[in-house]
Specification:
single chain; mainly alpha; 22 helices; globular
Length: 557
Amino acid sequence: MAGERSQWTLGRAIATLIVLFLASALNQADRWVFPALAPAGLRCHVPTPDSCNRTHNSSGGSGTGVDYGSESGMETESNLSPSPPISDEELFKTNTSGSCASRAGCITFSSYDQGILTGPAFAAVYVLSGIPLSRLADTTSRLLVLSIGVAFWSGMVLATGFVQTTWQLYLTRMGLGIGEATCNPVAYSLLADCFDARHRSLAIAIYSAGIYVGASLGNLAGTVDKILCWRWIFKILGIAGSMLLPFVIFTLYGADSRQPATDEAPAGEGKDQNPSAATEDLRKRKKRSYTLKEVVIELVQCRPYVLLVMASALRLVGGYALGAWSATFYREHFGERPESYGLKLCIVFMVGGLPGSIFGGFLADRLAKHGVHWKAYVIAFTQIIAVPLAAGIFLMPSALTSYVMFTVSFLFSESWFGVAAAIVQDLHAPAVRCQASAVFIAVGTLMGCIGPVLVSAVLAHQDKCNQNYKWAMLYVVPSAYMASSVLFLITAIVAHCGHSRHVGRTPGSRQPRIDSPSLQESSREDSDERQSRKRSKCNQQRPRDQQRLLQTSDSDG
């Protein structure tokens, strides 16, 4: 690799990808372990007097009739007796009492607190801190920002193992959001430097596959509470993050150079501008940082980027709703026990989400040889295919067929994120990639948080004791998938119609910076075509000139 990629040998690029993948997996595990451990001993459950008896609804839309406190999990006549109503929380406490809750000490907080701790307490801080931290990474050292982030979020996870009160939980979750906000923007920027545009989608897709590995580990944590109490799980995850930190520093040391690939203007540039303008454009590309105004103008004026951010945000509405409510859906609709649906959802993430993410990146890179806009087409068509499959998750008659449909759906629906993140890198110059990624993640996270709330709003309009989770999920998830696929398709069309030449544009420059090989080839073809037209015009003009010369000679004679 030449120029800016000369420092990135193949071995070092692969090592960087592996370390960042491990950071991503640990990032997601630390994020999702809390909602998995909350019902497994972390939260002290208190029965409420107005709880509804869980009796089976013949329509399949509400209570399951399963006693989670019984050994068999089957319906019995005594379970359905009217003697005092017992909440699902108390029944689950009965099943786990004597294990983690009694040995490690639980923490008392309400369902409202649990919702805030799982969502806004983390997401709001994650979004608000992500943009300034990414700008700091763009203007200073990416390695320094990422290293401090890994150390900080690992410390917050470790501290969660020692908390005693609810407000301490709030502090550790907010601290986790600040630390994890450094990971994705820096990782995307580094991977964009490691791999050229021909392999960038696959590299970022492999990195993004850490989402499913980490989410699987987080869900599994709730099934081992009888072996390891929740406090020890948080401590182990915190120590694991501390052990990863030296590998991050060693692998990424010296990786902050953002020099352009060559000292010459990219193919297709500079031929129609005077030397002074070309020199000025090259000087701007060599700049290591840009003003906030330049960055904002760059992001807003790039129409493919704006459309991509909007489409991704809509897609995350459905994704967040599915992630937040899938376990509750299987418990309430099919009567699945926590240790059962936790393990099965882990299998869904690993068998469906992991290969789906990698497949999407591989396919996008293969088709991008015909133009970068094909990456957006890949996202659009896979999401369109995923719409009926996502609806089938909630329409299947049994839990087994629903899990199978879930897995098949993930093969297509989860192929988008790594490709979308790669497009963000393709669209912008190296010195603004962290900030572009941070805005991309921030808007998606804020919009995504609406998904679980929409499901709650649908449930709120139903009978409290006869809530139909199937239709609540059907209203939100497939609809969000369909709306996002339409926007992804529009993004691809806009890029296809010529705006893809915005790729790698330098802020403040009137000329596009084309660092994609496919776009360079296209630019060379355009230049050759212009020269061919000039030669053709000259060939047509030559006979006329010869004839005029002969006429002049005859008149002189």
